[in-house]
Every structure is written in structure tokens, then in C-alpha cells.
Amino acid sequence: MPQDERKRARSDAADLANSDTGSSVIAKWRRLTPDVHEVLARATGREPLATNLRKARENRGLSQAAVAKKLRLSRSLVAQIELANRPVTTDELAKFVDLYGTSVIELAGMRADIDDAVTTTLLNLAPALVKEFDIQARIHGVLGALQAASDLERLLERPAPLGPATYPLPSPRTLTEAIRQGEEIAERERQRLDLRDAPVPELANLCAAQGVAVFALKLPDELSGMFVAHASVGLAIVVNVRDQAAQRLAIAHGYAHAVCEPMGTIRVCGKANVGELIERRAAAFAAAFLLPAAGVTGTVNRLGKGQPSRQEYWAFDAATGHSVRAEERSTPGSQTMTYLDGVWIARQFGTTYALAIARLLGLRLIAEPDRRRLLRPTTVALAQECLALLGRVRTPVSYSSASHAVVALSDLPAERFYMTVEAYRRGLMTKADLAGEAVSLSLQLPRLSESRLLEFAEAAR
Fold first, then answer.
1. Could you tell me if residue 47 is left (phi over 0), alpha (psi between -120 and 50 degrees) or otherwise beta?
2. pLDDT digit string (tens) for 250-308?
3. How far is the C-alpha of 349 from the C-alpha of 90, rounded, in Å?
4. Angstrom distance (rounded) from CA 144 to CA 234
């Protein structure tokens, strides 16, 4: 093979080794020559996997055609995989593991310490982890930190952490039962922690105070996090550092496992097992824990919404012995929930916009048509931009050195922004009024221009 072609092959190998095995990657493999296939197979470490797949098949007395039929693949594809001429997707690897009755670690030819049950279990639960470079070292970094802390506690003769409260529950049998369990436990845990209806502050620190350490690691995109409850290291939640927007949700999801499942539990949370009832229960817990029903309803009511369009009041007239009826109708359009209401709830409780909309639907504050309207791609994109503009709920900041500067320490700029857009939506303000507000608001929200404010306001109509 020419020198420049070898260099190109090594470059391609690096690209392929650091990417997910999707259709584009497989197509790239098919375009390469056999000589380059050989270089790539060695460079990406696929030869051991290919050899082990062939040995596992032969040990079970199966032909390539039989394997292809059982897995609903073509025989040529199985042959190419066993020759290391074609990468293996995560789904395919999981199928091979099930068919051959082996483990991901054995097939991949990875070394795992015999006494490291946690890492071994994690790698076997999530074949996608095998594709991550140096994943064992990263997992050991988490386990090592936990073990070091445990050793120091023993050295200082500190009492062992008690861990969070636990709620022994039977495994849910239906989706309805899973959701109900998750929401009920979330409410009980909020009461125990005296959170009442307020947003959860610094979720990672709250978990740590309950004896559950929280880490962030670079994980495959299809994984949102992992949970470990093992006698050797204690309790830990690991979230995907790649998805920062959903980290609070992932931490709350892991905390659900901490309060609902016994010591010895090791779980991987991601797209592959999202439909499991245990995972559904944890998802319901996370939503209710981050977005408490009374807190969300109270926030919506403070925004002047969440009320029926017509309300009836009754009073008893002692003089006549009859009941007197009075009726009040809300201003037309005043109760319409807009994307800005979802943004407001998301930033108030520190969640994503999508989760806020889902919670509004679950609490029957919006209907299914509203959910579809509020989750249109263009609306979601605008909501994300609005969240970035307003930021999270403000915390105290230092004063500017400029003597003439006015620094809002409360959430007033965001309040004004919301009310300006809502007033324009209801026809209570004109475009000229909007322009005047934009000038004033831009002093506290520098990225807000007149044109952007108008775009936000028009989108809410």
C-alpha cells in the first residue's frame, strides 16, 4: 500500500474509532479497499472482536447462514463482520451477546479485573460503552474516588453515611402503576426533605447530602446516565456530560433509583431500556420531583392562567332561603398557554422546556392539541433561544464598578419581558409600545433587540 494511502487509512481509522457506528460510518467502510480494511481493523482494535465472534459462533455449532437467519441479517454481513471488514453496531453487538450467551467484555476481548464487579456489570449492560475510548479508566476514576472517600472516612473513624430514605416497592406491573409509584414517592421525598413546592436547589449537592455522590462522564449519546449501589463503593449517580441541558433530569432520574432500589443495584439508563417499567417509574419520579404539582400549578396561577374560562359562585340567601348564583368570565384569550409559559416554568424549576410542557400536560393544565402546538420544532427552537436569553432564575450578583449602573438583583427583567410579550399577545400593547419596552429591557438583557422582542411576541400569538 502506498505511503500516502496508509496515512489516509490511519486518519480514517481515528475518525471511525471516535464516532458512533451508524450508516454513514458503515458506508465509509464499504468504499475502502481490502488493504485499507486490514489497516483499519488493526488500528481500531476490531480484530479481537471479529475473531471472538467467529469463535463464539463455532463453539455453538452454528453456521454463518444460521446466525444470519436468527438475527435477521444477511449471511454476507455476518461474514464481513467476522473478517473485521465491517464495524459492528451497538444493536448488532447486543444481538450477538444474546444469541451466543456470552458477555460484551468476552466478545470485545476486553480485560476486566475479576473483583471489579461494578465495571464488568456496567460494560455488559451497555454494549455502547465498549466503543468509548478508555472507558474502563474513566469508570475506575469514579469508583476510585468513591473508594478513596470511603477509606478516608474509615481512617477518621467517621460513621458510615446512612444514605437516602428508601421506599420498598414491588416492581410495577403496568405503565400506570409505574407512573403512579414514581409520582407518589417523589411527593413523599419532597416532603421528607422539606422542599415543599419550591424548586430544587443545587440538585447534585442535595443528593450528596443524602449520601449519593454525583459524577459527570463522557458517555455515548444513547446513554443518559448510570446508577451504582454497591457495597464496595456506596451509591453514585453518573450523568452524561455531553447533554448538559438535561443533566438535572438525569440526576433526578438516578436519585429515583437510589430511593427505590436496594443495595446491589447497578443500572444503565438510555434509549435501549427506556421502555422498562423500572425506568418509566424513575422518569415519573424525576418529573414530579423537579416539577411538583402544587408548585407548577401555583406558578401558572401567578401568571394569571390555569383557570376555567367561566367560573360560578354560589351564596345562600338566608332571607329567602334560596341560593344565589353569580358568574364570572375571564377575558377572551387570557387563559391561553403559550410557549413563553413553558419557558417560564422551565427556568423557574431548572428543567428543560420539553419536560415543562410534558408536566403541564400531565397536570391537565394543557390538552394534547396544546402540547403538539407548543412542541413544534420552530416553537421549541424559539423557546430554547428565549431560555438562553433570560437565563435561569437570578441569584445575587456583585455590583458593577460603574457608579451609574443599575443592577437588578431580583428577577424583574424577566418578569417585564414576560408581561410585555403577554400584553402584546392580548392586544393590549402596540408595536410602538413594544419598541419602547425593548429599549428599556435591553439595558438589563443586552442580547434583546427590538426586532427579537417583536419576533418573540409575534410567536406567542
1. alpha
2. 999 999 999 999 988 999 998 888 999 999 999 999 999 999 999 999 999 999 888 87
3. 35
4. 12
Q: How many residues does the chain have?
A: 461
- Beta pairing partners, 267: 227
Closest CA to 129 of 304, 302, 270, 29: 270
Q: Which among 436, 415, 433 is positioned nearest to 424, based on CA atoms?
A: 433
In 10 A of CB 291, how many CB atoms? 27
β-sheet bridge partners, residue 213:
236
Distance in angstroms (rounded) separating the CA atoms of residues 350 and 286:
12
The phi, psi pair for 230, rounded to 5°, reads -135, 140
SS3 59: helix
> Which pLDDT value is given to residue 25?
44
CA nearest neighbour of 20 among 161, 219, 318? 219
CA distance 83 to 327: 78
Distances (CA, A) of 312 to 303, 309, 315: 21, 10, 10
C-alpha 93/C-alpha 199 separation (Å) is: 42
Q: For the chain, how long is the longest CA-to-CA vector? A: 106
Banded pLDDT at 137 (limits 50, 70, 90): confident
Give the Cα separation of 408 and 406 in Å (integer).
7
Query: Domains of the chain: which residue ranges?
Result: 3-109, 138-290, 295-329, 339-460
Q: Which CATH class is domain 3-109?
A: mainly alpha
Reduce the DSSP state of residue 282 to 3 states and report it.
helix
- Do 110 and 73 contact (CB within 8 A), yes or no? no
How far apart are the C-alpha atoms of 369 and 110, rounded to whole Å?
Answer: 50
pTM over 0.85: no
Amino acid at 75: R
3-state secondary structure at position 397: coil
Instruction: Give the separation between CA 440 and CA 238, rounded to whole angstroms.
Output: 43
Of 236, 182, 243, residue with least CA distance to 207? 236
User: CA-CA distances (angstroms) from residue 378 to 23, 138, 213, 218, 382?
Assistant: 27, 38, 38, 29, 6
